Inverse folding.
């Protein structure tokens, strides 16, 4: 009855889970970039929902990226210089931004030096 292998119910359950989860091979990640108009475009994983399953390569130009299946059309994203998102004002890294106390102390020292002269 069991035949020495996995029970049929286990095989059916695993198959259903794979269909539900929609398991498929991941392709390349197209990094975010600034388009030719200077607008920021978010990056995406290939293939996108609108692409065929074989469109796993990031293709195009630095200013226009898409998923395709042609290795000849593959974009060397390392050669692109427009993939750095500009920092929002006021979001500098901690190492380049003074804390409030440090800034206040610097201002006091400057004022003290001006009063002495």
């Amino acid at each position: 009855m069991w035949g020495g292998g996995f029970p049929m119910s286990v095989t059916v359950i695993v198959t259903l889970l794979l269909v539900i989860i929609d398991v498929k091979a991941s392709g390349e990640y197209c990094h975010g970039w600034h388009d030719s108009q200077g607008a920021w475009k978010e990056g995406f994983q290939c293939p996108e929902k609108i692409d065929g399953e074989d469109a796993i390569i990031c293709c195009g130009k630095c200013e226009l990226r898409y998923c395709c299946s042609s290795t000849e059309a593959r974009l060397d994203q390392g050669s692109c210089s427009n993939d750095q998102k500009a920092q929002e004002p006021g979001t500098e890294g901690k190492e380049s931004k003074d804390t409030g106390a440090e800034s206040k102390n610097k201002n006091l020292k400057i004022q003290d030096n001006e009063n002495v002269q």
